[in-house]
Amino acid sequence: MATPIIIDCDPGHDDAIAILLALAHPEQLEIRGITTVGGNQILDKITDNALKVLSFVNADIPVAKGAAAPLLGKLVTGEVAHGESGMDGPLLPPSKFKPVEQGAVEFMLELIRASEEKITLVPTAPLTNIALLLTAYPEVKDKIEKISLMGGGLAYGNVTTTAEFNIYVDPEAARIVFESGIPIVMSGLDVTDKAAIFEEEILELKQRGPVSVMVGELLDFYSIYGKKMGYVGSALHDPCAIMWLLHPELFESEQLYVTVETEGKLTRGMTVADRRKKPDHPANTEVLLGVDREAFMKLLFDALERLDREQLPVQGD
Questions:
Q1: Which pLDDT tens digit goes with each residue over 123-133?
Q2: Which of 20, 130, 198, 212 has the fewest C-beta atoms lying within 10 Å of its C-beta?
Q3: Is the peptide bond before 233 cis (omega within 30 degrees of 0)?
């Protein structure tokens, strides 16, 4: 039976690829809904991006708009990496779909309460929506199987020396989520930077079907910022949170207690893991640290080829 999931995202090039990866595996993952949150760009732009991606593959999945800003302070966007639209590169047709009227928190609450099975949350964005849900309705924790998130990094950051973007944008929300008691799988920079796609692979995508070509065009733009920052290849950050659900055997991990620093001048937004032999708290997070890159890319290419070949069935039909 397929695992029911809710994807919480801010598309975003790698968010879009994560959504497509999930859509290509309806026998394993049932996307009950998608929620959006201000992050890579402002809320209206990234919500439109999510709807455009779904329209491109004819996937009529409900999308709910969430928080436009973090719990405290103003939104810091990822425009420097993702462009003015939040998903610069391919020219996608206007969306055929519109967001639902409910806000993201109420939408998630309704889906979780109505589900006979526990729901898995897949946040690939700042954790504002998830923190608001868990704070307002703590009783839903018992109906959440786990949280497979992209965020953080034990060794280094990418916005500051210590903080990764998704956590940096809303560290207060991230701390609430990590300390919620819900089992967490963390795809941080330690693993996502190793899930890099290289130029020759991007070129190969652009010689395939329409979905693969669109992803290749996404990566053409996305790789520009990476090159400026000294990277060889483009890290597929957000798809790791989906790929772990599909093929956890590809990953190396460690069970650790992780929380988030919210006050440090140099460390605000840092995911802090207790790696002592006798930590103060039991492990709350499976931290992904390594990945079989070649197997990851083969599975991604296979997924995109599947979307190239098939007209995606509308979920729920």
A1: 999 999 999 99
A2: 198
A3: no
Q: How far apart are alpha carbons 7 and 19 in whole angstroms?
A: 8
Class of domain 3-309: alpha beta
Give dist(CA 95, CA 307) in Å, integer.
18
Distance CA 54, CA 16 (A): 9
Does this model's pTM top 0.90? yes
**What are the pLDDT digits (tens) for 4-60?**
999 999 999 999 999 999 999 999 999 999 999 999 999 999 999 999 999 999 999
Give dist(CA 189, CA 155) in Å, integer. Answer: 8
Contacts of 178-183 spanning 24+ positions with Cβ under 8 A? 178/258, 178/259, 178/260, 178/271, 178/284, 178/285, 179/259, 179/284, 180/134, 180/141, 181/141, 181/284, 182/134, 182/141, 182/144, 182/146, 182/147, 183/145, 183/146, 183/147, 183/284, 183/286
Q: How far apart are CA 258 and CA 191, in angstroms?
A: 16
> How much of the chain, in percent, has pLDDT values that exceed 70?
98
Hey, which residues are catalytic here?
Answer: 237
Strands (DSSP E) contained in 156-296 are 184-187, 196-197, 234-235, 251-260, 271-274, 285-291
Looking at residue 143, its amino acid is K
